[in-house]
Amino acid sequence: MGVGGPLEVGNAHVNQNTAANLGSSALTVKADVTNTSSSSQTGTVTATVTPPGGGLPVTVSQSVTVAANATSTVTFDPSANPSLTLSSPQIWWPWQMGAQPLYTLGVSVAQGSTTLNSTSETFGIRTIQSSLVGAGSATPSGVRQFGVNGKNIVIRGGGWSPDLFLRYSPADPAQQIGILKSMGINEVRLEGHFMPADWYQQMDAAGILVNVGYQCCDFWEATSYTAAQNTVYQ
Predict the structure, then answer these.
(1) DSSP states of 96-150 as a string?
(2) Could you give the CA distance from residue 46 to residue 24 in angstroms, rounded to a whole number?
(3) pTM of the model
(4) Which of 73, 65, 64, 100 is nearest to 13 (CA)?
(5) How far apart (Å, rounded) are the C-alpha atoms in residues 159 and 212?
(6) DSSP 8-class letter at 84
(7) Mean pLDDT (whole number) for 78-87
(8) Contact, 76 vs 48, CB < 8 A?
(9) Cβ burial, residue 154 (10 Å; 0-12/13-18/19+)
(10) Are 20 and 38 in contact (CB under 8 A)?
(11) What is the 3-state composition of the chain as percent helix, strand, coil, each rounded to the nearest 5?
(12) Confidence check: pLDDT of 2 > 50
């Protein structure tokens, strides 16, 4: 990774649009480019998607001009970059439903022949769906059902408690993943403390879904409920 500016790339990620039959996946690559200098800067952003197992990578590039002390988002759209629509992609599944192939996304920004900054991360090609089903007296709107790649999944999960003093060692989640699988767990929920990038990488490679805990229990701190809500609360 290059350092020192004047252009820096970050927040690189992939948005996916995978066909219902899993036969293709159109990838939209996005990255933020920050200009740390006091004058406008122009550079070339290059994104490379490498399939699992080190197959033939897909590389796309475009020029970007960023105003002084500003950040611009660079988007590689599959409609303008046909190579980003993958045919017969390798699909990621929860560990009880299939394999967990991970693609690698590398993004860099350069001026001339000098690479100023680069990032690298992995991602799985998958589609998560959810809907409300089974409306009843206790759940008038229904209950939340989840699916992965068009197949329903029964979520078996629980809250993840990090080390009391927030110390982190990659060996700890590696051991605990084995325990989770022996219990049939396929999902963990964080409780207000986001984990290091390595933790998410390990969960991704293990095929364990992560609920990062955006939702909260504040609703149940109210003093009165409807009859149906009171049934749920009890």
Answers:
(1) TTS----EEEEEEEEETTEEEEEEEEEE-B--EEEEEE---SS-TT-EEEEEETT
(2) 23
(3) 0.87
(4) 73
(5) 10
(6) G
(7) 97
(8) no
(9) exposed
(10) no
(11) 15, 40, 40
(12) no
